[in-house]
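note to self: dont lose this again. the chain is below, predicted strucutre after it. 435 aa total, dont forget to put it in the shared folder this time
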Amino acid sequence: MNFALVNPRWSFEGSTYFGCRDPHLPLELLHAESELRRAGHAVRLVDAQMEALTPAEVSLRLAGFAADFVVLPTTPSYLFWRCPPPELRIPREWVSALRPTVAPRARFVLIGPHPSVTPRATLRKTGADLVLRGEHDQVLPLLASTPWGSIPGCCWQDTQGTHLSEGLGVTAMSSLAPLDFAGYPVELHTHKHHVFAQLDGLGAELEYARGCPWSCSFCNKTLFRNKYRERPVSTVLAEIDALVARGVRYIYFIDEIFGVGRNVRTMLEAIATRPVTIGFQTRIDLWDEEGFDLLGRAHAISIECGIESITEAGRAELNKNCRMGTDRIAELLAYARRRIPWVQANLIRTPQDDAAQVQAWQAELKAKGVWVSEPVPMFPFPGSPLYVQTFGAPPDDQAWERAHRHYLGLFGRGDFSDIQEEQPVALEELECTSC
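---
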C-alpha cells in the first residue's frame, strides 16, 4: 500500500507552547518511513515545516501517488511530545486542506501525544479517520494487513461509531534500522537546537534511547515513550556518520533522559573521534567529574539539567528521586561548566522553594557561568502524574481544555515564558471548536 507521511507547517499564534519553534528532523516520520519500506510499502515523506510548504504545495508533491494512508503528527517533533502545543488547530487545518486533493480514498491517520491520551477527542476535533496511541513506528505497517481491532492502540471511526483497541504501540528500539536520511533535505536544517553561539555546519537531532526509568510528577511520557530502551551503539554511530557526510556538525539527542544507558559512555568515546559536537537533556545525578571529563572529550557543547527545585523537599514533592543534595548539585554544575560551553539548570516553581533563596542560588551559579532558568509553573499535561494529582482523575475527552484553563489561571498577564510572543488565548478559541 501507499503511505504519505506529512509533517505540517506549524505555527503557534496564541499558544501556550513553550518549546522551540524552529524546524527539527521529523524522526517520528523518518523511522516510520524506514519501517514501512522494510514491510514492502511505498512511502512518500513531505516535511512542510522544513521546506516551508503550504497544503497546496504538499498536494502537488503527492499528486499521482494515490495514497492509501496519510499520516500526520499532532506535535512538531518527537522532541516535544512531552510538552506539545495543547491545541489541535494545525492538524485539523491540514486534514481539512489535504483530504479533497491528496486521494479520495485515503485514510487520514494521526500520531502523537493527543491521540495517545484523548483518542476520541482527537478524532472529533480533527476529522481524521483513525489515530494511534503510543508509539507508531512498528504499528503503522500493520494498518495494511491486520484488522484494526487487533492493532495495539488503534482508534477509528466509521458509520458504526468510534472503536478503540486495547493497549499502546511500543517500539522495539533495538530492531529499528539505522536511518540513512536518503531523500530527506538534511541540508535545509541549519538550526542547532539549544545552541546560543555561532557554530559552523548544519544541525540535526537523533535519539539514542527512548523512555525514562523515573516517574517525575510533571513529566508527560506515561502513555508514550515511557519504558526506557536503548538502541545499539553501532546503529546510532551509523546515523551520526551519515549526517556528518551530509555536512552536519552538531547533533542534539532528543532522549527523555540522556546518560542512563549501560553503553552510553562507549558511544561518547566513539563520538569523541568524530568531527561533530553534541547537546542533550539529562539529570545531574547521572554524572560525576569523570563523566563530565568524558563529555568534554566527546565535544558536548550544550546540556540542560533538570534540577527542578533547590530543596530536597521540593524535589521529593516532584517525585524526582534525586540521589544528590543541593550543594553537590551546585558543585557538579560548576564543574560541568568548566568542561562544556553551555550548562543550563532548569527550575520549576514549587511551594517548597523560597524566592529569595532561589535568586541567591541562581546568582551563585550564574557567577560561575551556569545558566539557571526562572522557575515557572508546569502545565499539567494530560497523561502526566501531575494531571491526576491536580484534577483527581485520569484524563477524559475534556482533559486538554481543563488543563489549559488551569494553566492560564496560574499566571498574571505578561508572566508567561519569554518564548511566547503574545498572551495565550483559550483552547476553544485556538481550535475554533465554538465557531
